[in-house]
Amino acid sequence: MTSARLLRYASFLAGFDYVVSFKKGTENQIADCLSRAQLPKNDKVVVPKGLQLEVLKDLHSTHRGIVKMKQLARRYQNLVKSCKDCLSIQNNPPKAPVHHWDPPSTNWWRIHLDYAGPFQGYYYLVLIDAKSRWAEIKAISEPPTSLNTIKLLNDIFSTHGYLFVMVSDNASIFTGDTISNYCLENGIRQKFIAP
Q1: Where is the Integrase catalytic domain (predicted)?
Q2: Partners of residue 128 on adjacent β-strands
Q3: Which phi and psi (to 5°) does residue 5 adopt?
Q4: Could you tell me where the beta strands, DSSP code E, fall in 55-188?
Q5: What is d(CA 182, CA 174) in angstroms, rounded to the nearest whole number?
Q6: C-alpha span between 8 and 194 (Å, rounded)
Q7: Model confidence over 46-99: pLDDT tens digits?
Q8: pTM of the prediction?
């Protein structure tokens, strides 16, 4: 069975009078430029505005519908995306500089804390001293709140003393009025990072 596309192409060609003759490639001076010429490394093919409609018509020439036309265009797009030369000159957004924390001068000056879990029915408050890298981990079975976080912090501070800076993410546990007032009362400055 002949495909509908070949039948359409045959009926299209039937409208012409032509004679097929063989010509050596070296004698064919008006060959398709893009099939013969190699592009230099940093050049790219750009379809001029005046020819963009013609390219779209060519993509649509098989009349297979919008989906198939887009798939054909995407095939060419994927070819470009996998081209090493195209990728080497692609505009990449600049990378944001990494912010490094200044090292504190003494132990227990600044701590970083967050919750981990639930794991095996427990939530874990993980607290790390920025200078010594000393870790304190406290487990609780109920979901964390500002009140039970303060209880855990009081337990840790009873051993090590109060600190000056507490760094956490913007979770409501750490940004609520309850823990903010607790930090103000105890001379702790809060700093927040992105979650």
Answers
A1: 100-195
A2: 112, 135
A3: -65, -45
A4: 110-119, 122-129, 135-140, 165-169
A5: 11
A6: 60
A7: 778 888 788 777 777 776 777 777 777 777 766 667 777 766 766 666 666 777
A8: 0.51
